[in-house]
Design brief:
The chain has helices at 2-12, 28-37, 59-68, 78-87, 92-107, and strands at 18-24, 42-48, 51-57, 114-115, 118-119. With 130 residues, it is an alpha+beta fold.
Length: 130
């Protein structure tokens, strides 16, 4: 939880506008209490395997997250993945490279690609987008 405390510190100092922190579900109550005691807005989404994604930060950013992140992060469209990385403050050139790589994979029919808001999958249990 030291990493969470450091993220909160950086957020409060203005280093970050939004944070994504993945952690074990057993610490959920601690995380909620800490953020609520400091009046920090947050969203918690289950990841699976007793893990949670915790987004916290500016309300404007969290409103966008509510609209964008409606599925597992590895299934986001290249565009949504790019936007999320930019919102989290990741290096923009690295995000551009990642976007181009993911966009190329989608064009080639990668099984972990999403097109628009319709999940595409080929050769697994997910529905194909045709």
């Amino acid at each position: 939880m030291k990493v969470l405390m450091n993220h909160i510190y950086e957020y409060k100092k203005g280093v970050r506008r939004m944070v994504l922190f993945t952690f074990n579900k057993k610490y959920e109550e601690f995380a909620r209490r800490r953020l609520e005691s400091q009046h920090i807005h947050y969203i918690i989404q289950p990841v699976g395997n007793d893990r949670l994604n915790l987004y916290f930060g500016r309300e404007e950013c969290l409103n966008a997250i509510r609209m964008m992140v409606t599925r597992s992060l590895n299934l986001l469209t290249p565009e949504k993945d790019f936007m999320l990385g930019a919102m989290l403050g990741y290096d923009i050139c690295t995000q551009c490279e990642r976007y181009c790589e993911r966009k190329g994979r989608c064009a080639q029919g990668d099984t972990h690609c999403a097109k628009g808001d319709t999940l595409c999958a080929r050769g697994d249990a997910l529905q194909s987008c045709g």
